[in-house]
Amino acid sequence: MLKKLLLLSLNAASAGFMPPPAAPTPPARAEVPGRPQPTPPAALDDLKIVFFGSSVPFGQGATGKYGYASRYATLLAQRNPTGQGAPWTTSNISVPGDNTVKVLARWGRDLLPQRGRYVVYALALGNEGIHGGGQPVFDQFVTNMRVLIQRARAQGMVPVVTNSYPRNDYTAQDYAYIRRLNLLLQGWAVPTVNLLGAVDDGTGHWAAGYWDDALHPNDQGHAELLHAWVPSLFAALRAGKPLPHRQSTAGVRLGRAGALRFVPEALVHPFTQVFSFRTTGRGCLLTLQDSTRAGSLCIGRGGRLSYASAVAGQLTTPASVADGQWHQVMLTHYFARGETILYVDSSRVGSLPERLRTRQLTLGGRAAPRDGQFRNWLFYRAGMNADEAHALAADSLPRSSLELYAPLDGRRADRDSLVNLAQSTNVLTRAAGAR
């Protein structure tokens, strides 16, 4: 048999050809433990959002587990027929008790098969063990969250991160870590949502009447968490709108016949509105239209700034702000705990007990100071604490739940002076007289 095979080979060679050599065996693909393997971007569903977190995004505490993630899915579905958004689909693979370690462990098994373009990492320091864990736990969360963000991007996904929320077992030290983490996340190059700013009672616990048990919100609490979400966030991300960065701006002058108007995209409960101004005169800087009446921020006698509530009460600065210098005013409202706080240049002026339902904000107008200039108008769909007030006054730009960021730069073309850099599709409108 061997002799016959050799003879056949010799005959083939003498005929001028040889059988083709066998194809080389390709080397085995190196699989590195823990390293995400690339997936073609085309395999992802561009209209799918996946919630990936723990018990609160799972819906714990809500009737029928209809929590904030499900409520946000409903809001998106309601906006689509009106032309306000795409036909989004959502999936929720959150598991009660999960933390960054557990989510990393099941990342490839649970997230990759979903094939969603967008992933919401909805985790918190509580499950991580911050209560008693301190700095090592804080560092673990930060390190692992960076890995989770990188893994998503390596697969062509767009990550979104929710900030930590309250728990009734948090100590003052725990609360300090929560605030510190949330401020850190707001500076990362990733969209974030300020859940703490929706239901914080001011000490890191759930606002009274908004919790089911010490660790979870009830139906009201989940509904309040929903309000912290910018409705058009994913529409902006799909359009490629980048994260905003603080811009230099000369500001704009708003004559008495002019005004800038902002109408939030959906029902507002908690909010923070910020702008800077300078003037030497008297007049009203901002009006806030509530469901039936309007509140205002005006400069009155002695050049002092006053917030007059649409409900009842007034807050007034102790000193004049009509000095021709730039000043920043921040009005923040915590609907759940029923409190509005006024800050000027990061200093707390005072607070009022109230619940507002703000529908429209107007900057400038007929009653504005004649020489009034305005810049850096921001609107957040969450309340903000003193740490965030100080960051804003230091020219930082916290970005969680930011629906409007208008630098108001009068040096640019007329239309650009009204640009909204926040990751939303909302717009400002301008009345005659703004320049």
Would you give an account of this structure?
It is a single chain. It contains twelve helices and 21 strands. By secondary structure, the chain is α+β, with helices and mostly antiparallel strands. It folds into two domains: 198 residues, SGNH hydrolase (Rossmann fold), CATH 3.40.50.1110; 179 residues, Jelly Rolls (Sandwich), CATH 2.60.120.200. The strands form four sheets. Strands 8, 10, 15, 16, 17, 19 and 20 form a seven-stranded antiparallel β-sheet that branches. It has a seven-stranded antiparallel β-sheet with strand order 14-13-12-11-18-9-21, with no helix packed on it. A hairpin with a 5-residue loop joins strand 13 and strand 14. The chain is globular and about 65 Å long.
Beta-strand content estimate:
25-35%
* Unreliable stretches covering 5 or more consecutive residues: 1-34
Counting copies of identical and different chains, the oligomeric state is single chain
Structural class, by secondary structure, is alpha+beta
The biggest sheet amounts to: 7 strands, antiparallel
Q: For this structure, what is the CATH class of the largest domain? A: Alpha Beta
Overall outline: globular
| Count of DSSP strands | 21
Q: What is the assigned CATH homologous superfamily of the largest domain? A: SGNH hydrolase
The overall pLDDT, averaged over residues, is: 90
Q: Residue share in helices? A: 25-40%
Computed CA radius of gyration, to the nearest angstrom? 27 Å
How many structural domains?
2
Task: Specify the CATH architecture of the largest domain.
Answer: 3-Layer(aba) Sandwich
Number of helical segments with 4 or more residues: 12
CATH topology of the largest domain: Rossmann fold
Termini distance?
A: 98 Å
